[in-house]
Design brief:
Blueprint lengths: L1 E5 L2 H8 L2 H9 L3 E4 L3 E5 L3 H15 L4 H6 L5 E7 L7 H12 L4 H10 L2 E5 L2 E7 H15 L4 H17 L4
């Protein structure tokens, strides 16, 4: 199975320098080659190829190599929320990104702390890397904010979901 991932030239060049991440990808049995604007993955194992693709995608979306390499473990995943799904207006896109970031980055930091996920806001997308049991919580919270929910309501919702997970025996 072969996969091709489009990348910005700068991220492709940076990826070439990430020897630890590249070694971890190769250690899973996936061959990776990088040129000016593409990363090519080749493997006989579709599942391992998907994990490697997720790791490269996360790196391309601005996550560092340590966070990206978490995605080589099947208990982690990446989700991408497209702000275009909420508005086409550039002005409104900036406002929505600002709502997710918050004053001095406090909302984003709190979201990351409360959900134990990593969040990157880049261009018209918000990317989330986290444990599979937590990523839905983070994505749901971000979508609530983008839909206009008050921040307090979002964090109350997160607390409820965490309590539910605890009562059901999850993390």
């Amino acid at each position: 199975m072969e996969e091709e991932i489009n990348m910005t030239a700068s991220r492709a060049n940076e990826l070439k320098l990430q020897s630890k991440l590249l070694t971890k990808i190769r250690d899973t049995g996936v061959e990776i080659t990088i040129d000016k604007t593409k990363a090519r993955l080749k493997s006989d194992n579709a599942f391992r190829s998907m994990l490697a693709k997720n790791a490269v995608t996360a790196f391309n979306r601005g996550f560092d190599s340590a966070i990206s390499s978490l995605l080589l473990d099947d208990s982690y995943d990446i989700a991408v929320v497209n702000i275009n799904d909420y508005t086409r207006s550039k002005k409104r896109q900036m406002e929505l990104k600002g709502r997710v970031i918050g004053s001095r980055g406090m909302i984003k930091k709190r979201l990351m702390k409360e959900t134990s996920c990593y969040i990157k806001i880049q261009g018209k997308t918000i990317s989330i890397v986290g444990h599979v049991e937590r990523i839905g919580m983070a994505q749901g919270a971000i979508e609530m904010i983008l839909n206009g929910a008050k921040h307090d309501s979002v964090f109350i919702s997160i607390d409820r979901k965490k309590l539910e997970a605890y009562q059901n025996g999850s993390s």
